[in-house]
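Chapter summary example.
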Amino acid sequence: MKKAGTGRFGLKGRGVEPKAREEVRALLEEAQRASGVEPRRRDLLIENLHRIQDRYGHLSAARLAALAEEMRLSQAEVYEVATFYHHFDVVKEGEWPPAALTVRVCDSLSCALAGSEALLEKLPKILGKAVRVLHAPCVGRCETAPVAVVGQFPVLNASVSSIEKAVAAKQTRCPEASYIDFKTYQKQGGYRLLADCLAGKRTREEITRIMEDSALRGLGGAGFPAGRKWKIVAAEPAPRLMALNIDEGEPGTFKDRWYLERDPHRFLEGMLVAAWCAGVGEIYIYLRDEYAGCRAILEKELSRLKAQKALPIPPIHLRRGAGAYICGEESAMIESIEGKRGMPRLRPPYVAQVGLFGYPTLEHNMETVYWVREIVEKGAAWFASRGVNGRKGLRSFSVSGRVKKPGMHLAPAGITVKQLIEEYCGGMLDGHAFYAYLPGGASGGILPATLGNVPLDFDTLQPHGSFIGSAAVVVLSDRDKATTAAQNLMKFFRDESCGQCTPCRVGTAKALGLMEAKQWDQPLLKELSQAMMDASICGLGQAAPNPALSVMKYFPGEIQ
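The structure predicted for these 560 residues follows.
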């Protein structure tokens, strides 16, 4: 008889090295002692991959094989998940591990406008082979462009010298922001609303009706009415789950990070009230890996929240993304929470009916629930009346680009971009004239300055081939070209496509090739765009053509 692993009927796959087995087993046991949770559960695969990479700096073939054995998964399954996400460094057998230190330079639009390409060209020569320099998609700090990340340390308004200084000082950990902690939040009236709900002083119907009357809509991009979503999930059979989406990967967007770095418990209380109203029994928070500082805050404050005995709260799990824009799509995020590749699901069924682990799931953007406490305390009319130009509510605009005061600006829904620039952003940079803008990040299209008086809100921009999405406004000046911006955005979509469906996987690559030509083949590009919008599974492929279509419609002089 042939030995196992060597013949037709033996075990298949790479054999597990004893040393790698010991290393991985020790990490898993360490994790279990720290959390009390069995780490070999299938849904914790991505968390375990992070543990290995955090400890050893990369994912070797030997340790992947050992992890597969410990979790009783196939090596192919572990490998395909590890290679799906940008932040996992998978080292194949025979390859050298990456450099001990990695510097990621954001090359998305806001950072490109601020000179990130020059940094990417110069840094490899200056830092040498001991440091790996990588292009990175948006890291969510667009107001301080250009941005480089040394390990997990963000270098804001980066220059070659400031990056060199961070590397030399071995600054690799993200500093923790100054924020309102648990005790301070309680002293300011925090968790009083939740206590009233749990004590029966408020009813689920009352709070839900306030949300409906306030006209609060989902602030992650889709804009679905919040109160209505609670009702839909509450009507489903128990058990019900909740998934909080903080995978803020849309280029130009950073509002969720801004709020988390300042007032995390306002978000947590709103989350718990929403969960109570919808009858949710367990909560999962999905946070993008780029937000290491926010992760440290949430880990600390969740521990404090769970330690208090006055308020019985459901189990809350903090899950760490691994660098995949597609996981901002709700069903792809759910797949990732389950420890899988972030592949969007076909719908129906919708996640409110069949979501996380197959249960009805209330999915929300972080900022949506952030507003719950204030709306209930001040009344639905207070929030609804804050809009202008016939719109309702407030919008957290992430503004970057050619303005004097980029940043997160809270303004009335329905404000125009010209008003936003002049009244909130200090005007255009000196010597720059307003030329164009992106009202909704990479997906929302590019509009000319002549449409600068269109109210910024849900449903107001669609007639112009655009939408507000997550309210990420990137301002371009007369020194920029809409075609260059559109090429940057299409490159982003090409790189971030999950590859599941052909219209998106192939279409984004083909569209970029057409857009890089000196003269665009407009009929072919329009035909390709229509195919992507009609046949792509999720919003990435459906929205990817918007920048190209905007340029052909509003900036024809740049492509002829």
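To summarize the output: The first strand starts at residue 59 and ends at 60.
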